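Module 6 notes. Inverse folding takes a fixed backbone as the condition and produces residue identities as the prediction. Think of it as a translation problem where the source language is geometry and the target language is the twenty amino acids. Below is one complete input and output pair. Work through it position by position during the lab.
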């Protein structure tokens, strides 16, 4: 399936021509050692470093001076679904816009260095989501919404190679940023609502040549067991990948989350099997594609409660652990060597499952629904957590979690047509509500100790939390909400140290970097953003308005004292 031809020949993409001088003349190829141990001034992966912390080792911005932050430059972005996260390497920012525009900017001034524009056919929705990029060697890697992996020359933006990964004609597409590990570009795709023979998968692509080296389907084949209640392979749906992986260099594994089965409810699927590999994390050897282990958080999930988000790697009580929190607001922990569950801490807002020690025990009475019978559940399918990533601070030993407090008063599932091309999520009705424990405020940032599960502090907001969180070595946590507020918190106490109103809601993955000794905070803003930014606030918070357009990137710094 690999192709290494110019875009003009393929008819799939086009390069937006710029003057020959628009390039990065002094680009240094990014090697494996630098990617694994980056300079504190760079932000080389979607969550900065292999451990997935979303933490910057820069300490120039502190609780004492953060009040002096000001915007130093901004960049308007293409219209569409904004969920991006910039990368910064050696003073250059690589930025994925919605709808297929990739740009290189001077990270100090905001000047454009080059841009690449991909043209899509009718199968790709205008303004399609791209959550970020990867950078390695001489290339910038773009997992495009037409299910093609594209390698761009990092100096010029010209296409180096492109590889067709899946068939966009049947709805497959990328949203998550790829990662690079052991010379392999690793990414998963989604678009598996409908019953097809082709399943969602995770692929490993040679970073230099673009050759696909391995593929792991996320739906268990009939030949490998029967966790799908005897359902034929054709009629097994789901297993989408919509979050990036994390590389565990110590064990030589990529940890990547797999979302729910489809249709969502057991009753709609017609069985109560575990439905591997859905609602799970897979640990994959990047060189070979071998699945070393898996952990299924909720076997046979029946309410779209994904646990498929970022997996951090944190040492807890002297032992390596992976840490994940999904829609239910449970902080799961396990051993990254073999996946074994070690701890689980429930924030206590969900009403769906019970735990037995560190693992899923069972559904509570009445929480495995029948078709056409409404149930009240917390959270709704929007989740307390979503794609907006949490961050960790080694100074406070806390994760900082963006939350939307919401429930569903009457979730209804239906029968699903079990034929090729049928399927879907099986949802027949929904009545979203505020959470009874937070009737006035939907948004919340929560600081949770990873060693004990104790909540250190929380900050409530009327509007949903709407960005990833970002921590730094200076003791500050940054995040934004749907009501256009950008906050700087004291990591230890939760005190709001600085707050500013933006022209549009902060939305996407924040990043911190430094150029010439000055630290910057990059904040994507924009529209779209799934239910937290569309159905929930629009329906339940009608008095709050945000503009209907206005994607961009805003960059903040302390006053330049030089």
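Target side of the pair, the amino acids:
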């Amino acid at each position: 399936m690999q192709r290494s031809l110019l875009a003009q020949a393929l008819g799939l993409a086009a390069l937006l021509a710029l003057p020959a001088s628009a390039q990065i003349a002094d680009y240094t190829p990014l090697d494996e050692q630098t990617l694994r141990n980056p300079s504190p001034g760079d932000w080389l992966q979607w969550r900065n470093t292999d451990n997935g912390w979303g933490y910057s080792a820069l300490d120039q911005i502190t609780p004492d001076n953060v009040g002096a932050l000001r915007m130093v430059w901004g960049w308007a972005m293409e219209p569409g679904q904004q969920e991006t996260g910039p990368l910064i390497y050696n003073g250059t920012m690589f930025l994925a816009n919605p709808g297929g525009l990739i740009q290189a900017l001077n990270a100090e001034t905001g000047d454009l260095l080059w841009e690449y524009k991909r043209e899509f056919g009718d199968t790709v929705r205008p303004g399609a989501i791209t959550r970020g990029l990867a950078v390695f060697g001489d290339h910038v890697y773009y997992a495009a919404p037409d299910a093609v992996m594209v390698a761009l020359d990092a100096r010029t933006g010209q296409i180096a190679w492109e590889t067709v990964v899946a068939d966009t004609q049947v709805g497959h597409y990328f949203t998550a940023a790829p990662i690079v590990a052991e010379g392999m570009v690793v990414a998963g795709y989604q678009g598996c609502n409908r019953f097809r023979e082709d399943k969602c998968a995770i692929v490993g692509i040679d970073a230099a040549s673009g050759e696909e080296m391995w593929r792991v389907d996320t739906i268990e084949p009939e030949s490998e067991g029967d966790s799908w209640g005897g359902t034929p392979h054709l009629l097994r749906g789901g297993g989408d990948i919509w979050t990036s992986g994390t590389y565990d260099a110590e064990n030589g594994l990529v940890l990547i989350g797999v979302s729910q089965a489809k249709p969502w409810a057991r009753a709609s699927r017609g069985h109560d099997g575990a439905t591997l590999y859905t609602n799970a994390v897979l640990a994959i050897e990047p060189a070979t594609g071998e699945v070393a282990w898996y952990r299924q958080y909720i076997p046979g999930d029946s309410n779209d409660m994904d646990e498929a988000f970022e997996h951090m790697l944190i040492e807890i009580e002297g032992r390596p652990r992976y840490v994940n929190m999904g829609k239910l607001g449970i902080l799961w922990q396990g051993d990254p060597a073999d996946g074994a569950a070690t701890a689980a801490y429930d924030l206590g807002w969900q009403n769906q499952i019970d735990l037995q020690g560190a693992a899923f025990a069972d559904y509570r009475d009445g929480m495995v629904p029948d078709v056409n019978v409404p149930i009240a559940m917390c959270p709704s399918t929007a989740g307390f957590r979503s794609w907006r990533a949490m961050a960790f601070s080694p100074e406070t030993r806390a994760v900082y979690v963006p939350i939307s407090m919401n429930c569903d008063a009457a979730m209804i599932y239906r029968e699903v047509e079990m034929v090729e091309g049928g399927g879907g999520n099986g949802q027949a009705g929904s009545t979203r509500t505020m959470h009874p424990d937070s009737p006035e405020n939907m948004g919340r940032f929560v600081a949770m100790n990873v060693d004990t599960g104790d909540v250190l502090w929380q900050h409530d907001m009327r509007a949903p939390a709407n960005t990833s969180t970002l921590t730094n070595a200076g003791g500050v946590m940054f995040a934004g909400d749907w009501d256009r507020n950008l906050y700087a918190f004291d990591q230890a106490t939760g005190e709001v140290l600085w707050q500013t109103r933006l022209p549009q809601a902060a939305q996407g993955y924040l990043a911190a970097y430094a150029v010439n000794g000055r630290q910057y905070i990059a904040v994507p803003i924009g529209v779209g953003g799934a239910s937290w930014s569309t159905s929930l606030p629009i329906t339940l918070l009608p008095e709050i308005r945000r503009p209907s357009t206005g994607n961009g990137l805003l960059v903040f710094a302390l006053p330049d004292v030089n």
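Reference fact for the lab report: Residues 1-21 have pLDDT under 50 and may be disordered.
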